[in-house]
Amino acid sequence: MREALLYDRLDRDRVRCGLCAHECLIRPGDTGICGVRRNESGRLVTLVYGRAVSANVDPIEKKPLFHFLPGTTSLSMATVGCNFSCRFCQNSDISMMPRDQGRIAGADDLPPEDLVSRARRNGAASISYTYTEPTVFFEYALDTARLATRAGLKNVFVTNGYMSRAALETLGSNLHAANVDLKAFTDSFYKELCGARLEPVMETIVRMKSMGVWVEVTTLLIPGRNDDETELTRLAEWLAGAGTDIPWHISCFRPTYRLLDVSPTSADDIHRALEIGRAAGLRYVYAGNLWGDEAEKTHCHQCGTLLIDRRGFSVRSNRLLRGACPNCSTPAAGVWE
């Protein structure tokens, strides 16, 4: 166990965690909502430092990030735990383990130095903190990210966007890109299906942009839950207001975990949402989990020329010339080198 960052000591040995928007008040012997930060006699500790439950080399497109170092690989790592309780969680076996199984799993000792060495040995261009919520293993991610930056690697958060301002400011220039789940655009969805609120996620997206972090956004389209046309229009218009160059990934839902009574998302519904995004002014709107779909590809927003040809997580061709369209020379938003 290692002492956690970003918390305040209170009376009667209680602590207030400042890592995410929950701001958990934790009594001695208890953990926060995430299940991996515990109050030990007035001292908040992290239970997962150095305990990676997964460390795999993935295409960066799998995050998904389509405008950040396309065609490169990323060492993707995670510990158990999450500060959300999404009923549709796709990685519930590890994210919900502390709550559902009451235990912490993972390697006993996989220190930041080893993660950075593994990334370099495998030719990865970045390290992605993903699969579960990276905010809950913040100290582990922070130490790894600092070492990775010094080694010339980039750092990526795949996140629900619920971290505090203090957490983002502590990461600072060591965070280079993020894919943020904007799960819906109503507070009721967040409260009922995720155990959270919408506004902190919106604030994180704006804050990351202001910090110079490359941001892409993903929405898992769940039939009857967050696919109302009015709601999607409001979401897309807000996102365009935050930045028309923010790529929006709209992904198919598959029944999983505790949301098994909902049908999978149809391709027609995905394409309807794509059109809503384009009508709102977003320049880059992508279909997720529709293998071989034309909407996996990147086109020039000015002239429509195919820039990056993708199939699934593979880049089949990249026609960008110094980050611009080869036909009309319009720059494409992203981090290309």
Give the arrangement of secondary structure elements:
Layout: E1 2-3, E2 7-9, E3 15-17, E4 25-26, E5 37-40, E6 43-46, E7 54-59, E8 73-78, H1 92-95, H2 97-100, H3 112-121, E9 126-129, H4 138-150, E10 154-159, H5 165-171, E11 177-181, H6 187-194, H7 199-211, E12 214-221, H8 229-242, E13 248-252, H9 267-279, E14 285-288, E15 298-299, E16 306-311, E17 314-318
Parallel strand pairs: 8-9, 9-10, 10-11, 11-12, 12-13, 13-14
Antiparallel strand pairs: 1-6, 2-3, 3-4, 5-6, 7-8, 15-16, 16-17
3D architecture notes:
The protein has 337 residues and is an alpha/beta fold. The chain has two domains: 2-46, no CATH class; 54-296, TIM Barrel. It has nine helices and 17 strands. It has helices at 92-95, 97-100, 112-121, 138-150, 165-171, 187-194, 199-211, 229-242, 267-279, and strands spanning 2-3, 7-9, 15-17, 25-26, 37-40, 43-46, 54-59, 73-78, 126-129, 154-159, 177-181, 214-221, 248-252, 285-288, 298-299, 306-311, 314-318. Strands 7-8-9-10-11-12-13-14 form an eight-stranded mixed β-sheet. It is globular and about 65 Å long. The two termini are 38 Å apart.
Whole-number mean pLDDT: 97
Terminal Cα span: 38 Å
Topology order in helix (H) and strand (E) letters: EEEEEEEEHHHEHEHEHHEHEHEEEE
What number of structural domains do the residues give? 2
Number of helices: 9
Tell me the number of strands.
17
Main β-sheet description: 8 strands, mixed
* Main structural class: alpha/beta
| Computed Rg | 20 Å
Share of helix among residues? 25-40%
| Poorly predicted parts | none
Strand order of the largest sheet: 7-8-9-10-11-12-13-14
Assembly type? single chain
Principal-axis shape: globular
Task: Give me the CATH superfamily of the largest domain.
Answer: Aldolase class I
Proportion of beta-strand residues: 15-25%
